[in-house]
Amino acid sequence: MRHSKILMLCLAGMVSLSACGKNATDDVKRAKTSVNVIDESGLSDIMLSATDPEEAVSYFERASQSEPDRIDLKRGLALSLTKAGKSVQAISIWQQILETSDATNSDRVNLAEALIRAGDWDKAELALNEIPPTYETFQRYRLEAMVADSDKEWQKADSFYETAVGLTTKPSGVLNNWGYSKLSRGDYREAEKLFAQAITYDPYLFTAKNNLVLARGAQGKYDLPVVDMTQSERAELLYTLALSAIKQGDVTIGRGLLQDAIETHPQHFEAAARSLAALEANVVN
Predict the structure, then answer these.
(1) Which contiguous run of DSSP H or E holds residue 80?
(2) Burial of 106 by CB count in 10 Å (0-12 exposed, 13-18 middle, 19+ buried)?
(3) CA separation for the pair 241, 262 (Å, rounded)
(4) What whole-number distance in Å separates Cα of residue 261 and Cα of residue 269?
(5) Which residue has the higher pLDDT, 28 or 88?
(6) CA gap 156, 249 in Å, rounded
(7) How far is CA 12 from CA 7, 19, 68, 158, 252, in A?
(8) In this structure, what DSSP letter does residue 265 have?
(9) Rounded distance between C-alpha atoms, residue 181 and residue 232, angstroms
(10) Best label site of 51, 56, 110, 271, fewest CB within 10 Å?
């Protein structure tokens, strides 16, 4: 009798241990799954900010194929494709995402950006029109401004640019775009102000420096603006100013600026040298 009781107790203990072992294994599996999701989420963020967009595309393509139901991986793939300059492929992915119940207004904005990059301005405008006016983000208004610009709706463009500037702490890019819009309209003074503003937010934005020189040159201001620049940048800006002067008909000033550009550049400045040679040959003829 004692033996049978002991046997029953042992069996009960074995069952209990087995159950404990099973629960422990399940807990470990769940923990591992949670850790993997966290790790994958962190890796996705890293890949999206990677300097090599092709590498990010490869990662999200593999991840999406492994887990086709995860919309966050599809978003990562679409964003990476856009960044890699593969806008047509990105558009296809964004359209798939927008067909799901998890689609957001942010997805519609990203589709609009991919469409703009692909040069399909009309469809980009339609995509933006589907977003309610209550959804107010920097990216949305930046794209709205660009679309209004393409339609030559200047008043709307200015309003959207102004709103976009107010929604970011890094407005250098949108200020540069706004300045270029003013430049294309012939409003050189306003363009100059906007390019100068862009540079105050990003002193390394050479595009804005070059555009600033173009705006000044169009007004007959042939001296370089007081902004930080490297020696190579100074030469490039002198070259831009020279071409602007020549275009305005101020050939003598343009020739002098070309010579300054060639002398300033730390290496041989082929483009400026060719322009100067062509100018002198034209004068001789």
Answers:
(1) helix 71-83
(2) middle
(3) 13
(4) 8
(5) 88
(6) 35
(7) 9, 11, 45, 79, 104
(8) S
(9) 27
(10) 51
> Structure pTM?
0.79
**Residue 205: which of 214, 196, 193 has the closest Cα?**
196
Domain boundary among 111, 139, 157: 111
Cα torsion 111, 113, 115, 117 to 10°: value is -150
200 domain-assigned: no
Are the CB atoms for 222 and 200 separated by under 8 Å?
no
Residue 26, Cα to own-chain centre: how many angstroms?
44
- Parent domain of 254: 229-285
Is 93 inside any structural domain? yes
What whole-number distance in Å separates Cα of residue 249 and Cα of residue 233? 24
Nearest to 201 by CA among 173, 240, 236: 173
How sure is the predictor about 71, in pLDDT bands with cuts at 50, 70 and 90?
very high
CATH number of the domain enclosing 78: 1.25.40
Instruction: Look at residue 243 and tell me whether its pLDDT is greater than 70.
Output: yes
Phi, psi of 47 (to 5 degrees): -65, -35
In angstroms, rounded to a whole number, what is the distance separating the alpha carbons of residues 206 and 203? 8
215-238: per-residue pLDDT in tens?
999 999 999 999 999 999 999 999
Q: Which two tokens stand for residue 112?
A: 């609009």
From 111, 140, 160, the end of a domain falls on 111
